[in-house]
TrEMBL record:
It comes from the Eukaryota. InterPro entries: CENP-I. One of its GO terms (cellular component) is inner kinetochore. This is Centromere protein I.
């Protein structure tokens, strides 16, 4: 029994011993496999200056080995440092430099010290200009993988000195753009950039760097920088794109946000062959892949954003936050968006917009049309994440707006419709609405299906609500200037804002009028149109904007003659709200001369009001002075009895079923249906109460506010 009790223990000990032996053997095999690679790195670390390349078999063998490891699993930080030092120091001349730079594929992070030493080597020796360009392209490609940026920013002035080299200038500007902080902006640097611009012209890369300088020190940059600069910085990752993507897949980690997002803007031939599905939100990670309590972080007292777990913790460490390595990862974290909204760091927003602009424009504007029929799920998830971030911040990103202005010109109206319309609704108030938005949307509206028309109406209504809400929150009472967004310093006067809102409302009115004709006054489209004017009618009281715009005849009359009671009731509610807003505006106009609603608006309202009252209440549909006019001869030929009553509260097509039901309940014994009997005073009041009890609150409010019921024939009370 004792022996049997010991056997399991003996077996367990034997099993553990066997596993340990296997691990030891595996480690030995790995060491043997790694030993040639270690020896290769030692060779490049110790090689002497002047060693020849031609006929050097040892050099070729070691470099092939390093390339094999780099292209399969990537290079460690130590290997990156050794190989970069070897290439930039030109110990074996400039011929191996390009080959080495192209195989610098990091497996995790890039040491900052190695990059700084590489920058210093640019000014030493006789390195060919093409090799210098390739090095800068590599730095830009792996920028988000560099483990820290403090030493790079410390040599900001040294990097800036290369800006005078015409071939290096675009890449140096891009690197400076990523490194710039407020303390980096100096008057002499602004002057140098301005001198370069006078020499090279208004180059986009110079304008982008100047725009960032202007954000930090507007008093130093007197230049008017365009809000949208075409193709400011290109992506320079072509030499490493495919190889880095392969390393990324093997290592199962996100390597660099720029790698999987885009091709160079100028590489149009290869970009046409791209397929959708490269849009991914990077994982929120620290700038370094080290533990949080490193010496460097302790010295700087920075806390990586990825370590913040609650909003309370975010508030306590708001000014100690270290931004993530990949700015695109901010879109996938609620706490990161809260930090972005609270702090509103301009450099972070500019980098995020740059990343997002490259992602959207390269993916959709330069993608293949053959892939439009099938959109991968990850692309839709990316756009949904972007929409969620914009809804959280309650405003859009300038890069997504710029993308939309271009994309609308090539959009077919069906590709990712919910996501595109959602992004479109977040566009802020801008000048040049007609050219950027109205012209492409007009073409899409009149050539698309009913459901697109309804979706666009909903989108424009949401856009208007956001404009008006934003106005009511951000309008400044002292000078009536309105900031175009919490992330920009551009201002718009109240008059300019009113003009933009009025232009949008008139644009929707034109679309709705023609759209209702094209779709035969379809009830679904009419519902979305009335939703829009449900917003417009309350611009003054609900949103505090001194503006009232009446719907056009092409919207009012289809809603009035609609066969469904809901549309008629909603029209009555809209007219009631117009009356309330205009009455309040009229009273305020008397109190202050600075406020004014045009007399034409009052006239239009009174005109619609009289028409509705005469038709619904007074049964005077085709009487002289009414808008709807038909010859007496034609009306007689129609054989419609009492044709002037056909659109009153009893005979209106939308309400006749209710009149029938009321008649049967009021006079259940009658065999003949006489709807005119409802007009007797006592049944008439019962019928009105019956209608109002059916939920027609719009009709109830309209008649209670507009009808003088003391007379037998109701009269409209005009504003």
């Amino acid at each position: 029994a004792i022996e049997s009790a010991l056997r399991p223990s003996d077996q367990s000990v034997s099993c553990r011993s066997g596993n340990r032996s296997m691990r030891v053997a595996e480690n030995e095999r790995r060491k043997k496999a790694e030993e040639p690679f270690v020896l290769a790195l030692k060779y490049f670390s110790d090689v002497q200056t002047g060693t020849p390349v031609t006929g050097n078999d040892e050099f070729e063998k070691n470099l092939v080995l390093v390339e094999r490891v780099a292209y399969s699993n990537g290079l460690s930080p130590e290997a990156i440092s050794i190989m970069l030092e070897f290439a930039m120091s030109l110990r074996m001349g400039s011929s191996p430099c390009v080959r080495v730079l192209k195989c610098l594929l990091p497996s995790s992070v890039v040491p900052q010290e190695a990059v700084v030493r590489g920058v210093v080597w640019l000014n030493v020796g006789k390195m060919p200009i093409t090799t210098q360009v390739l090095f800068l392209k590599w730095v830009l490609t792996v920028f988000d993988m560099i483990d820290a940026k403090d030493q790079l920013r410390a040599v900001y002035g040294f990097i800036f000195s290369f800006i005078t080299e015409e071939n290096l200038c675009p890449f140096v500007c891009h690197l400076l753009y990523l490194l710039t902080r407020k303390e980096s902006v100096r008057a002499f640097r602004v002057r140098k950039l301005m001198d370069l611009q006078s020499k090279l012209g208004r180059q986009p890369f110079l304008l982008h760097l100047l725009s960032l300088y202007k954000v930090f020190s507007p008093e130093l940059v007197a230049l008017s920088v365009p809000s949208r600069v075409k193709s400011g910085f290109k992506n320079h990752n072509s030499p490493w794109k495919v190889a880095l993507a392969a390393v990324q897949r093997r290592n199962g980690a996100q390597i660099a946000s720029a790698i999987s997002l885009a091709l160079p803007v100028g590489d149009r031939t290869s970009s046409r062959k791209r397929k959708h599905g490269h849009l991914q939100i990077p994982v929120l990670t620290s700038v370094t892949n080290k533990q949080p309590h490193t010496e460097q972080n302790s010295r700087k007292k920075l806390i990586p954003l990825v370590q913040i777990q609650s909003f309370d913790q975010l508030l306590k460490t708001m000014h100690q936050i270290e931004l993530p390595a990949q700015m695109g990862s901010l879109l996938g974290s609620g706490l990161a968006l809260q930090y972005l909204d609270c702090v509103q760091e301009e450099s972070a927003l500019l980098r995020l917009n740059f990343w997002l602009g490259c992602a959207l424009q390269e993916e959709f504007l330069f993608g293949s049309d053959d892939d439009a029929a099938h959109i991968p799920e990850e692309t839709l998830q990316f756009l949904d994440k972007l929409l969620s971030a914009q809804h959280f911040l309650q405003e859009g990103f300038s890069s997504s707006d710029a993308f939309l202005y271009k994309f609308l010109n090539v959009w077919d109206g069906s590709l990712m419709r919910p996501q595109i319309l959602g992004l479109l609704s977040n566009i802020p108030v801008i000048p040049a609405l007609r050219k950027l938005l109205f012209e492409p949307l007009t073409q899409l509206f009149f050539t698309s299906s009913l459901f697109f028309k309804c979706g666009l109406m909903e989108c424009l209504n949401s856009m208007l609500v956001k404009w008006l809400t934003w106005h009511s929150v951000y309008a400044l009472e002292d000078d009536l200037d309105i900031s175009l967004g919490s992330h920009t310093s551009v201002n718009m006067t109240l008059s300019g804002f009113k003009d933009s809102v009025m232009e949008l409302v008139h644009f929707v009115g034109r679309l709705a009028s023609v759209g209702l004709q094209l779709e035969g006054c379809h009830t679904l489209l009419l519902s979305f149109v009335l939703d829009f004017y449900g917003t417009v009618c309350d611009t003054f009281l609900k949103f505090g904007l001194p503006l009232v715009v009446m719907p056009p005849a092409g919207v009012f009359y289809p809603a009035f003659f609609a066969a469904d009671p809901i549309s008629l009731d909603r029209l009555a509610h809209i007219m009631h709200r117009y009356r309330v807003n205009l009455t309040s505006a009229k009273n305020q106009e008397k109190a202050t001369e600075a406020f004014h609603i045009s007399r034409q608006t009052f006239q239009e309202f009174n005109h619609y009001l009289v028409f509705m009252v005469n038709c619904l209440w007074n049964s005077r549909m085709f009487k002289p002075g009414m808008d709807v006019r038909l010859s007496e001869e034609l009306l007689q030929k129609s054989n419609v009895p009492q044709y002037w009553t056909r659109f009153d509260l009893i005979h209106h097509p939308a309400l006749m079923s209710y009149a029938f039901d009321f008649h049967q309940k009021c006079w259940p014994g009658r065999k003949e249906m006489d709807l005119n009997s409802i007009k007797v005073p006592e049944p008439w009041s019962w019928y009105l109460q019956y209608l109002f009890n059916q939920g027609f609150d719009g009709l109830k409010d309209f008649f209670q506010s507009n009808i003088n019921q003391h007379s037998s024939s109701g009269s409209a009370e005009a504003c």
